[in-house]
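Notes from the 1:1 (GR / supervisor)

We went over the backlog. Supervisor wanted to see one worked example end to end before approving the batch request, so GR pasted a single chain during the call. The sequence is below; no edits were made to it. Supervisor asked that the structure be written out right there so they could see what the output format looks like.
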Amino acid sequence: MVKKLGVLFSGGKDSVYATYLAKKEGYSIECLISLNSKNKESYMFHTPSIDKTKKQAEVMGIPLIVQKTEGKKEKELEDLKKAIFRAKKEFGIKGIVSGAIKSAYQASRIQEICFELNLEVYNPLWQKDEKKYLIELLENNFETILVGVFAYPFNQSWLLRKIDEKFIHEITLLNEKYQINVAGEGGEFETFVLNCPLYFRSLKVVSKETFVEGENSFRAEVEIE
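Structure output shown during the call:
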């Protein structure tokens, strides 16, 4: 029997690509689970344009569970557990898909919650080579933009840039010079997926509002249609 899974879903490249890989492996994706955190510095959750996951869920044709959280360290894990429990109860899921790549903090806490709820964890991106991963995104027709940059030497011009061959070349140079993680795994940047094979139509940005959150720290809240 095909296993039913729920996805921890932020709308960024990691969670969307993990969903894509899970579906490709034959799993049935029953629901998406988004944590809407009030804390922009959340230890666990992606925050830029998080409310736009509703649009992504629509074009994927998958139900979305949204759980609000204050985003306080450790307390936010209780909210995550509530959301996963709800997914188990409402959709009969047997496991959770996570887009974690290198963060032991995230992966261990997700694993712990799933163990308590008797659920499996599927981590298709775990320990993936970051540069090869970005190339895979392009090969699989993922259209991804940056909605937040949070490290030196980024500036506002990086917001809404697409992850394309030019981006991969430039981020590789930044990695060599400033140790910026190529996939943004250190929180250096956050992304939003506008199109991929899971969508029945492409999304587009119709407007954006930019917020300066500090030196070399910029976030975009986008309107999507």
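Supervisor's comment: The chain is about 35% helix and 25% strand.
Batch request approved.
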